[in-house]
Write a structure and sequence with these properties.
7-stranded mixed sheet; 14 helices; alpha/beta; globular; Aspartate Aminotransferase, domain 2; 16 strands
Length: 400
């Protein structure tokens, strides 16, 4: 008998994590210090991108991406309804219009053929971009989406919050890491406690585009620059003198050149992120082991369906089942201290988006999925005993 509660996700904080945070707290920097750049470089190296920008959370990352891509009022952007609301909301923050497109019933990912049909049935220039989501940790085939986007002049933001360490197979059979920005203009990650890498809160944007990278750096810090090569005011103005012979900007000087935000990560959060990143591959191995055990246990059960097959490169942030009598199972598991979760209520049926005109029946695959989906416990410190208990309780419920 398991005596402790089993959540669907849980952070793993080690003594090493605690020690590096204490060290950062005892240093001269709490907010913007050397750990930020160290974390950015380590993360860029991990996913294989040229640049990485650390920010306060995944939602901030999405918002900054939309701003960097100049999303403005009336711009239409396509995304999936099966995601956390922030994937869509970032476009609304900029005054843009979110257009949902349905999922593939087997993968739960944005269905590229439905996106193609949407694009081809609309006048050229109707849409500005696409935000595919690596839902549950399964990587979107961004090579195919890139080809489609190029045909219609669209940018891509990859929402990879569920998938650091995940990858898909490209046409040349190479592994393409989530967030490497080879096919997406920008990619974003989250460091919420239940994610693969935990910073308490935190996020990262990756890109291979230097222009976008520089825009992101300014936008995350109020639109302010301290790079004198970018200054537009005169040296004499900066120094507060009328002497035009003064040639050096003072050390205190800075310029706000665009409207930005305070979306910065702290130095001690970055220190935690660096420590967590060192164990990222270890965590992935364990997540895939857990998924393999679930797959074996549920492979021939008539009362459920799991996300299509064993997939190379799946990062398994979530392990999702579609089941009969989802509400009954959910309540039964809770009665037995197993706190499964539901991911997600379709975004287009949230009251906010319904008030914008979306309605039931618009996304039939997403809506059918929502009626049956349940996310089982999935995190590296889940023990074999705890996982067997979860499996047994599910089988027990349907046997009875």
């Amino acid at each position: 008998m398991i005596d402790i509660a089993i959540p669907y996700g849980r952070q793993n904080i080690t003594q090493e994590d605690i020690n590096v945070v204490i060290s950062a707290l005892q240093s001269d920097y709490l907010t913007q210090g050397p750990k930020i750049g160290e974390f950015e470089k380590a993360f860029a190296d991990y996913v294989g991108s040229k640049y990485a920008v650390a920010v306060s959370n995944g939602t901030a990352a999405l918002h900054l991406c939309a701003l960097a891509l100049d999303v403005k009022e009336g711009d239409k952007v396509i995304t999936t309804p099966i995601t956390f609301a922030a994937s869509a909301n970032c476009i609304r923050y900029c005054g843009g219009e979110v257009v949902f497109s349905d999922i593939d019933s087997d993968t739960y990912l944005l269905d590229i053929e439905k996106v193609r049909k949407l694009l081809e049935s609309s006048p050229k220039g109707t849409f500005k971009g696409i935000i595919p989501v690596d839902f549950a940790g399964r990587a979107v085939d961004l090579e195919s989406f890139r080809k489609l986007a190029n045909e219609h002049g669209l940018w891509i933001i990859e929402d990879a919050c569920h998938a650091p360490g995940g990858y898909f197979k490209s046409l040349d059979n190479s592994n393409q890491n989530c967030g490497n920005s080879k096919f997406a203009d920008l990619a974003i990650f989250s460091f919420h406690p239940v994610k693969h890498i935990a910073c308490g809160e935190g996020g990262m944007i990756t890109t291979n585009d230097e222009i976008l990278y520089k825009k992101l750096l300014a936008l995350r810090t109020h639109g302010i620059t301290k790079n004198e090569l970018e200054y537009t005011n005169s040296v004499s103005f900066a120094n507060g003198v009328d002497d035009e012979t003064v040639e050096v900007y003072p050390s205190w000087y800075m310029e706000m050149q665009t409207l930005g935000f305070n979306y910065r990560l702290t130095d001690f959060q970055a220190a935690l992120g660096i420590s967590q990143l060192k164990r990222a591959d270890e965590g992935l191995v364990r997540r895939r082991e857990i998924a393999s055990i679930y797959n074996k246990a549920f492979s021939e059960k008539s009362f459920l369906k799991s996300q299509s097959g064993v997939v190379d490169g799946h990062a398994y942030h979530l392990y999702v089942l579609e089941v009969e009598d989802r509400l009954g199972l959910y309540n039964y598991l809770r009665e037995n201290k197993i706190f499964a979760q539901i991911h997600y209520i379709p975004c287009h049926l949230m009251p906010y988006y319904k008030n914008l005109g979306w309605k039931e029946g618009d996304m039939p695959n997403a809506e059918a999925y929502y009626k049956n989906c349940i996310s089982l416990p999935m995190y590296p410190t889940l023990s074999n005993e705890e996982q067997l208990y979860v499996i047994n309780k599910i089988e027990e419920y349907y046997k009875n």
